[in-house]
Write a structure and sequence with these properties.
It contains 18 helices and 9 strands. By secondary structure, it is of the alpha/beta class. It folds into 2 domains: about 60-170 and about 325-390, Periplasmic binding protein-like II (D-Maltodextrin-Binding Protein, domain 2, 3-Layer(aba) Sandwich); about 170-325 and about 395-430, Periplasmic binding protein-like II (D-Maltodextrin-Binding Protein, domain 2). The chain starts with a helix and ends with a helix. Strands 1, 2, 3, 4, 5, 6, 7, 8 and 9 form a 9-stranded mixed beta sheet that branches.
């Protein structure tokens, strides 16, 4: 018994000595934990390590631009400036216009991807299940105060939440030469069809072709009139099944026939693209129905600097969609599985607003995504048109529901501007004959 007690006592003493060795100079506090192994970075999860806001953060962005394009150059510059300011490194992969061909599969696979860029409709429809809800971050940034409601509302309508930030807005309508309007004594942009006809007459009397029209855009021009009378949903229904005769499509065609019969198209219209729109640069025409890129095309093709303005397509009596305007956008989204969504959002804001947003607008020659910035001189009126538009209109999408007839219908629209139909009823009968 005494031997057992002696052994136990000795064991206790040994344990006490070992415990004493675990402290230094009588300090009994917990010993520091060991550093993580080399295979496990100390900053795992990209948490800031001190210093700049996002030190150690790595972001991956897929861009729809190609390296060397103006947009790509500005994005690269913005990434370098963002890293210098915040510590976050943005790794950009310039995929080009075909990014949509690989994006879906990559998102489904959960590939390393924080920010991606594409057409805002694809982001809002095709990719929506892979996008992060940006509502709270946008609210914190007061995004509504400088963004375009037409795009944010559409994003929410598609997804149920805001899932895209506009990078490059587009808008369509009637682009015109302000100097030609002044020469013809037109003091206000026409808002109704009657005012538009009056402006056309004044331009014709002043020896200026009122409306340029290239055959490439004949369907786009007529589509504006159709949307005013029918709305896109009804157009899609008729495009798919026929039944144009007896509808307001006849009145829409009558309006185009009136333009032709009154000589309100520029000489030679409808021309082969871009012959007719170039007449604006040569002072031979005043207006064209197109999207914002037409201004740069005309200026570059003709070596001139037209004093451009823009107004929305005029409203018609009894119209159902008089406030619609063609709008599109290349936008930026954040993958819902991004590990650094706030850093990604902050970079998007850094790129599209303020100094960088203005630079993107200037160098890529586009409408600024930040409405507080200034549009290039030849895009005067585009910001205001986007802000005032009540509803987005697609680029002839409702005339492409029946893919088999798309090209044929476009050919009939060219014939409409060529004056081959006496009445709108004749035109609609020709449409119905296709079904």
């Amino acid at each position: 018994m005494k031997k057992i007690l002696s052994v136990l006592l000795a064991s206790v003493m040994v344990l006490a000595m070992l415990a004493g060795c675990s402290t230094s100079n009588g300090d009994t506090s917990k010993a520091p934990e060991s550093n993580p192994p080399a295979s496990q970075p100390a900053n795992e999860g990209n948490e800031p390590t001190g210093g700049k806001k996002y030190d150690g953060v790595q972001l991956t962005m897929w861009s729809m631009w190609s390296s060397g394009e103006p947009q790509a150059n500005v994005i690269s510059e913005a990434a370098a400036a963002f890293e210098a300011e915040t510590g976050a490194k943005v790794n950009i992969e310039f995929k080009g216009r075909d990014v949509n061909k690989v994006l879906q599969a990559s998102l489904e696979a959960g590939d390393k991807l924080d920010i991606f860029e594409d057409d805002y409709k694809r982001i809002g429809t095709v990719y929506k299940d892979f996008t992060l809800d940006l509502t709270d971050m946008a609210k914190a940034a007061n995004y509504d105060s400088f963004s375009y409601k037409c795009f944010t509302d559409q994003s929410i309508a598609w997804c149920g939440y805001l899932n895209a930030i506009t990078e490059q807005p587009n808008v369509g309508g009637i682009f015109y030469d302000k100097d030609a309007f002044a020469k013809a004594g037109i003091t206000a942009e026409p808002k109704t069809w009657d005012e538009f006809l009056d402006a056309c007459q004044k331009l014709k009397d002043a020896g200026i072709g009122p409306l340029a029209q290239d055959s490439a855009y004949a369907d786009f021009a007529f589509y504006h009139t159709l949307v005013r009378y029918l709305g896109e949903d009804k157009i899609a229904e008729l495009d798919e099944k026929g039944g144009w005769s007896g509808t307001a499509a006849e009145k829409a065609a009558d309006d185009i026939i009136e333009l032709v019969n009154k000589g309100f198209l520029a000489d030679g219209a409808p021309d082969e693209f871009p012959s007719s729109q170039n007449k604006i640069g040569f002072g031979q025409a005043a207006m064209v129905i197109c999207a914002d890129y037409v201004t740069a095309e005309v200026n570059n093709n003709t070596g001139t600097e037209v004093n451009w303005g823009l107004f929305n397509y005029p409203a018609v009596d009894g119209g159902v969609d008089n406030g619609a305007a063609y709008m599109g956008a290349n936008s930026l989204a954040i993958a819902k599985y991004s590990e650094n969504p706030q850093a990604a959002f902050d970079f998007i804001m850094f790129l599209t607003t303020g100094e960088m947003g203005q630079k993107l607008s200037n160098e890529a020659h586009q409408i600024p995504a930040d409405s507080r910035n200034t549009a290039p001189a030849d895009l005067t009126g585009t910001i205001e048109t986007l802000q005032a538009a009540e509803k987005p209109m697609t680029w002839c999408a409702s005339l492409a529901v029946n893919a088999d007839l798309k090209d044929t219908i476009k050919s009939l629209c060219v014939e409409l501007f060529e004056g081959k139909y006496a009445t709108g009823a004749d035109f609609c009968a020709a449409l119905d004959a296709l079904y």
